[in-house]
Amino acid sequence: MDAVNDTDEAGVRLTILRGGTSRGLYVEAADLPADPAARDDLLLRLMGTPDPRQIDGLGGATSLTSKVAVVGPSEHPDADVDYLFLQLGVDEASVSDRQNCGNILAGVGPFALERGLVAAAEGATEVRIRMVNSDSVAVATVATPGGRVSYRGDVAIAGVPGTAAGITLAFADTEGSATGALLPTGRVRDTVDGVEVTCVDNGMPVVLALATSLGLTGHEGHEELAADTALAERIDALRQKAGALMGLGDVAGSSVPKTVLLAPPADGGQVATRSFIPVRPHTAVGVLAAVSVVTGMLLPGAVGHDIAAEHFPAGGRVDVEHPTGHFLVDVVVDATTSPPRVTRSGVVRTARKLMDGTAFPRPAS
Q1: What confidence category does residue 322 fall into, taking pLDDT thresholds of 50, 70 and 90?
Q2: CB atoms within 10 A of CB 336
Q3: What is the pLDDT of residues 192-249, one digit of tens each?
Q4: Regarding beta strands 205-210 and 258-263, do their DSSP bridges make them parallel or antiparallel, or are they unpaired?
Q5: Residue 209's closest CA among 296, 140, 108, 282?
Q6: Confidence band, pLDDT 50/70/90 cuts, at residue 3
Q7: How far apart are CA 51 and CA 82, in angstroms?
Q8: What are the CA-CA distances from residue 116 to residues 57, 71, 84, 110, 351 (Å)?
Q9: Residue 355 sits in a domain of what CATH number?
């Protein structure tokens, strides 16, 4: 029996966790093929891709539920574990490692603790995580009463029913995560496809534009945005040209950069956002996308800086509105240096273990 069939028969040990507002498969690197092509093929068959319903796999028929975290021990001196994020397609057999995912990151600490990759302390445990996609480190603080991971708590996040234990994610060295620079074009503001934009990368390459520059208010609902095919085409043209300026090359088939439209707040927050991944509207806003959004807006001269100056002039904890609620991020930027420097960024998320066991992939064709 060959290696592929052997794996198919034995199955793959994995855990499914909700991390933030995403859901994914969490797998130890040692339980996957070492060859990236064989690994990706196996994961696609586990997820049920390609199929818009993913009926023969574990995916949930959306990009937010077609995600994988590959976790293993780290040799980095400042990290306990390595975390490789893979975004799988739904109706297309694609696997991308070109971005991080801060939502799936929220589940990495609990997973590493439950698998014994990191020893749990009494009360709370810090897990130092190297995000392989960007070669940067995040520190997750996980509730571990009695030396065991606890998912129960009183923290609510928009887009997720109920409450759970809070997981604090503190980021370090995320500037230029995919592009090599906080301002990848070398400028605070550019004109791309006739639209004033700010291109920023503090953990996620993002193109910021005012909603009004695309004929929107910035307060439209998700369904209204999803039905606007002309908007999707405009967003795609904008992000492809911006991606080239950001040094990302041809991004036609990539999920980055993200595009985020900005507007003044409408629901008690400090800025309203409408995010696209890459052209479909997000029901919320990604963790690292939100961090990059606030980072960019804090820079004098940037698109959206007028909103920032009015509603959160000093940075710190910022309430970001999105189509289904609010998201709190904590960012402080020193704009007096050249180039500007991020001095602090972090978020609070939650995670919950949904399943732990053996999964069986769709047979190889």
Answers
A1: very high
A2: 8
A3: 999 999 999 999 999 999 999 999 999 999 999 999 999 999 999 999 999 999 999 9
A4: parallel
A5: 296
A6: low
A7: 30
A8: 27, 12, 18, 10, 18
A9: 3.10.310.10
Which is nearest to 67 in space by CA: 28, 36, 96? 96
- 70 lies in some domain: yes
Q: Which residue has the tokens 């990495």?
A: 108
**Is residue 120 included in any domain, yes or no?**
yes
Alpha carbon distance 138, 173 (integer Å): 9
Beta strands 67-73 and 22-28: pairing type?
parallel
Residues 143 and 204 in one domain: no
Range of the domain at 276: 190-338
Quote the pTM value.
Answer: 0.75
Query: Is 82 buried (19+), middle (13-18) or exposed (0-12) by CB count in 10 A?
Result: buried
Rounded distance between C-alpha atoms, residue 69 and residue 101, angstroms:
9
Query: Residues 6 or more apart from 310 whose CB is under 8 A from it?
Result: 264
| Residue 1 scores a pLDDT above 50 | no
* Cα 214 from Cα 77, distance rounded (Å): 46
CA distance 188 to 198: 6
Which of these, 285, 296, 286, lies nearest to 207 by C-alpha position?
296
C-alpha 237/C-alpha 122 separation (Å) is 51
Please report, for residues 201, 237, 258, the alpha-carbon distance to residue 296 in angstroms, rounded to integers and kept in the order given: 8, 21, 13
Contact 41, 19 (CB under 8 A): no
Report the alpha-carbon angle 163-168-170, nearest 5. 155
What is the Cα Rg of the chain in Å?
A: 20
Q: How far apart are CA 152 and CA 163, in angstroms?
A: 7
Please say whether the beta carbons of 259 and 239 come within 8 A: yes
Q: Are residues 127 and 234 in the same domain?
A: no
